[in-house]
TrEMBL record:
<dbReference type="InterPro" id="IPR005263">
    <property type="entry name" value="DapA"/>
</dbReference>
<dbReference type="InterPro" id="IPR002220">
    <property type="entry name" value="DapA-like"/>
</dbReference>
<comment type="pathway">
    <text>Amino-acid biosynthesis; L-lysine biosynthesis via DAP pathway; (S)-tetrahydrodipicolinate from L-aspartate: step 3/4.</text>
</comment>
<dbReference type="InterPro" id="IPR013785">
    <property type="entry name" value="Aldolase_TIM"/>
</dbReference>
<keyword id="KW-0457">Lysine biosynthesis</keyword>
<dbReference type="GO" id="GO:0009089">
    <property type="term" value="P:lysine biosynthetic process via diaminopimelate"/>
</dbReference>
<keyword id="KW-0456">Lyase</keyword>
<comment type="similarity">
    <text>Belongs to the DapA family.</text>
</comment>
<dbReference type="GO" id="GO:0019877">
    <property type="term" value="P:diaminopimelate biosynthetic process"/>
</dbReference>
<comment type="function">
    <text>Catalyzes the condensation of (S)-aspartate-beta-semialdehyde [(S)-ASA] and pyruvate to 4-hydroxy-tetrahydrodipicolinate (HTPA).</text>
</comment>
<dbReference type="GO" id="GO:0008840">
    <property type="term" value="F:4-hydroxy-tetrahydrodipicolinate synthase activity"/>
</dbReference>
<protein>
    <recommendedName>
        <fullName>4-hydroxy-tetrahydrodipicolinate synthase</fullName>
        <ecNumber>4.3.3.7</ecNumber>
    </recommendedName>
</protein>
<keyword id="KW-0220">Diaminopimelate biosynthesis</keyword>
<keyword id="KW-0704">Schiff base</keyword>
<dbReference type="Pfam" id="PF00701">
    <property type="entry name" value="DHDPS"/>
</dbReference>
<dbReference type="InterPro" id="IPR020625">
    <property type="entry name" value="Schiff_base-form_aldolases_AS"/>
</dbReference>
<dbReference type="InterPro" id="IPR020624">
    <property type="entry name" value="Schiff_base-form_aldolases_CS"/>
</dbReference>
Amino acid sequence: MSVRYRKENGTRIWDWKEAKGFPSFSVSCTGDSSYRGWYMIALKLESGSRNAKWGSPRATVMPSFHLPMRSNEVKSSVLVEGIKSLRLITAIKTPYLPDGRFDLDAYDELVNMQIKQGVEGIIVGGTTGEGHLMNWDENIMLIGRTVNCFGAKIKIIGNTGSNSTREAIHASEQGFAVGMHAALHINPYYGKTSMEGLVRHFNDVLSIGPTIIYNVPSRTGQDIPPGVIDTISVNANLAGIKECTGNDRIKKYADKGMVVWSGNDDECHDSRWNYGATGVISVTSNLVPGLMRELMFGGKYPPLNSKLMPLMKWLFHEPNPIGLNTALAQLGVVRPVFRLPYVPLPLEKRIEFVNLVKETGREHFVGDEDVQPLDDDDFVLVGRY
């Protein structure tokens, strides 16, 4: 179809010449010199018959519909094997400013401490990092920033899981687009699905890039049974499983040659050295990354494991990340700011942590300041951010 413009006695006329599937017609308009107040005067069909019927142009029909970023076009920048070999992965804390926004300076320092102490990977926006308290813009921004600042030194695993398959796919596409090395995916929680639904959910997200499947029934309300893992294990993008149900399950997977990380710090020494786990995805390593590295790299070390046990039990006295958030604030490496619904541990538990630091050795903990119990009034609780 071609268009020709002409002017006759002050009237502007556009002629549309016939193209396949479209009739020819003319449109004439009048208006003032400023092109305001144009009015349609006439529409004349000239397709050979004054009785020809006008049909609106049809929308272009695509052979198949995809979002602009198609999952089969988004690939991770590292091979799955690069994730499978990781022994110590920290589920990194997300620190906040007093108004509830991310404290990126403190965050960068936390990540640097992990790198200096030999941690091999970090989970961004996981349970510990409070990804469930972020919107997706915050989540993807933090993943992208972490990749940009630290991606050459440490593996970045973004928590892009969701109980909505659609959201999990979209977030994973975005996460890989900004450069994350792998995704962490939980099974759909609250609105639980069937075993077949779990398989379909995981296969869809696995199609996007290297993925760690995270099984924590105490939070989701539903176990991912070995049968589901066996079914999806043929997918080349399955990097491994973060398993929180105990060492018997870990051994089952390890005996089949699967990569599995312990999700329980208080079990991880035995998981690694007695049950075949590749390593641990740890909360405690936020505080003592060097000691956790020794636990995962140095062979069986029961004395060190026993030494760390009181700290681990203290950390999980209340649901994670309440203990960790409190401890890092007491160590002076993050501001004492909590996004609700999390609140700090009470004073008696904070005093207990001061004593634990002294017994373990302050030099093993992150940061340089003396550990403090802090007053209740020092903490800022933010509900709107």
